[in-house]
Design goal:
210 residues, six-stranded mixed sheet
């Protein structure tokens, strides 16, 4: 006999309650939106472009102990970047995502350095030790561009999430002095649409369409 079809019922999922801080933000934007959509937009844009600087973890400190710190100058200010195995034959540039920093690449940097590569990882603007309090796609890409121009030929770039969107979407121009070709590019968890990211943010804060 053929198997009997059954209707699947979704399991009851218990979602955590909304954090008090988020409730306060939602209330703030309800009030601002009632007064002026322009004020509400400016305030929301400030929240959207302001990353938190999270405390340094122990494993990050250990990762940076084997790196040499350098600085590059971008329009957003001074940009910190780190180098592992400076004598490596080919350079791999690592670009972190939102609210991360160069030290988050510690494990990968160690493995690639042991494989003979020179590793460079950047602190995006308003991230890590780099200058600034706010970051956008354009300013972040500008910081990556400044580092890419400073370190010489880049054999490969690995970029994650927001960093992937900045690197490939703005985009960053690599190896301009030697023809502008980048042999290898790896994008991890790159957003498919910046518009959708903004829409999720607006939904989270209950922002009205205006």
């Amino acid at each position: 006999m053929p198997p009997t079809e059954t209707t699947a019922h979704p399991a009851n999922i218990q979602y955590p309650s909304v954090p008090p801080g988020l409730k306060l933000l939602q209330l703030k934007f309800r009030v601002l939106s009632a007064l002026s959509s322009e004020w509400a937009f400016k305030a929301a844009w400030e929240v959207f472009t302001t990353p938190r600087r999270l405390p340094l973890k122990t494993w990050e400190t250990k990762a940076l102990a084997h790196a040499t710190q350098h600085w590059a100058q971008a329009e957003s200010g001074r940009i910190a970047y780190y180098e592992w195995n400076g004598s490596g034959s080919r350079t791999v540039l690592l670009v972190h995502g939102w609210e991360h920093r160069a030290s988050f690449w510690g494990h990968m940097a160690d493995g690639l350095a042991k494989a003979g590569f020179r590793i460079v990882a950047v602190d995006g603007p308003a991230h890590g030790l780099s200058d600034g309090k706010r970051a956008t796609l354009v300013s972040f890409a500008g910081a990556v561009q400044a580092v890419a121009d400073a370190i010489g030929p880049v054999h490969a770039t690995v970029a994650h999430s927001f960093g992937a969107a900045c690197t490939a979407g703005v985009p960053v121009r690599f190896n301009q002095a030697i023809g502008g070709q980048l042999p290898r590019l790896v994008l991890m968890s790159a957003p498919s649409s910046t518009r959708k990211v903004a829409a999720r943010f607006a939904h989270l804060l209950h922002l009205p369409p205006a």
